[in-house]
Design a protein that fits this description.
Layout lengths: L2 H31 L11 E6 L5 H10 L6 H11 L8 E6 L4 H10 L5 E5 L6 H10 L5 H8 L2 H6 L15 E5 L4 H22 L1 H11 L3 H14 L6 H13 L11 H9 L6 H5 L8 H4 L24 H8 L8 E4 L5 E4 L2 H11 L2
Antiparallel strand pairs: 1-2, 3-4, 5-6
Length: 362
């Protein structure tokens, strides 16, 4: 090869090596700087969820799609260098769109700090009242909870007969995560009800069998009665007697027609069902019941007009009200009226009841 040609070839080779070296140097410099370069964002918060089973490439792609990082392949290489591709925690994140890749990875590895809150769901509240309390605590939206509560497929999966989940949500104090999934919240309440229910049946097998046989009831009818007792009783000691009063009304041949005649059932029928009668639509729930509501035969929950139990529970009863129905006190009373804010006067005859009403309702 002529000397001139050799020199030319050598210059080309050296030049190529130099160019490659320069490019490599630039790439290495950029790669080294990448973890600390802030993303070009406006500083706004972006929500994303890392779900269980997501691969790191899928996580990197999601970050890029949400405008939180550039160069998802570089982000993967950086995470591999740090040994963190398998250390990302699942959960819902709120990330600013102007963080550095190092900061983004650090947040994902640290995980979401779980924020929990306590919610007290009192005995005797209906499902809509429960949902309002849960919504106020920022656990789940009331509308989404109600949609599940009326969803036939959801009810079927939990073995609930009826139009709603009413009665099957156990009243207690719960600890929930903020912004929890509605289905998770509902599952907790239903499961707790099932646990308490099964425990009571196990502790009172003979009583439960006796009540069911005498009245021809299933578990659901026991629960419906328990919900009525819950709404009528204030003093826990009176619950077995109030339960017995209602059972006497349904079973005694001398008591005709067999109507429970209790105001809370009417109120429930005017407040919770989706379809309400004309009289219910005219009623202001902050007001007392009027003759139009008491005489309303179109309200299926009106126990002044319809014999027997209403179509379903009218609230979510606690343990003592369920137990009262399983073990009523065996008394022979048919009537009761409030003596004060806590206790009632009971009567065996209507004449005795009228005297009690005159005495205590003045």
């Amino acid at each position: 090869m002529p000397r001139g040609s050799f020199r030319t070839a050598l210059i080309i080779v050296l030049g190529s090596v130099l160019v490659v070296g320069v490019i490599a140097g630039i790439l290495i410099t950029r790669a080294l700087a990448y973890p600390g370069d802030p993303h070009r964002g406006a500083g706004k918060e972006v929500e994303l969820e890392v779900r269980s089973g997501m691969s790191f490439p899928a996580i990197a792609a999601m970050l890029a799609d949400r405008g939180l990082i550039d160069k998802p392949s570089w982000f993967r290489l950086y995470a591999m260098w740090e040994g963190d591709t398998t250390n990302v925690k699942t959960g819902k994140y709120m990330l600013h769109d102007n963080l550095t890749p190092r900061q983004v990875l650090a947040v994902l590895v640290a995980g979401v700090k779980e924020v929990v809150t306590k919610v007290t769901l009192p005995e005797g509240k209906n499902m809509l009242e429960f949902f309002a309390l849960i919504d106020a605590a920022k656990v789940a939206k009331a509308g989404e909870l109600e949609a599940l509560a009326r969803d036939r497929e959801f009810l079927g999966r939990h073995g609930i007969i009826g139009d709603t989940v009413e009665g099957y949500l156990f009243p207690d104090t719960y600890e929930f995560r903020l912004n929890e999934k509605p289905a998770v919240v509902m599952q907790r309440l239903i499961t707790h009800h099932q646990e308490v229910w099964n425990d009571l049946l196990a502790k009172h097998p003979r009583d439960a069998a006796k009540v069911k046989e005498r009245l021809g009831w299933t578990d659901r009818e026991v629960l419906v009665m328990a919900s009525i007792v819950e709404k009528e009783a204030v003093d826990p000691a009176e619950r077995p007697r109030i339960a017995q009063v209602f059972i006497n009304r349904l079973t005694s041949p001398s008591f005709q027609p067999r109507r429970l005649e209790t105001d809370p059932t009417i109120r429930y029928g005017c407040m919770v069902p989706v379809h309400k009668s004309a009289a219910c639509q005219q009623w202001d729930k902050r007001d007392r019941l009027h003759r139009a509501q008491l005489d309303d035969k179109d309200n299926p929950y009106n126990t002044y007009q319809h014999e027997g139990l209403p179509p379903g529970p009218i609230c979510n009863p606690g343990k003592s009200s369920i137990q009262a129905v399983l073990s009523p006190d065996g008394s022979e009373f048919f009537y009761f009226v409030a003596k004060d804010a806590r206790n009632h006067a009971f009567a065996r005859s209507f004449d005795e009841h009228k005297r009690n009403v005159e005495k205590y309702m003045k």
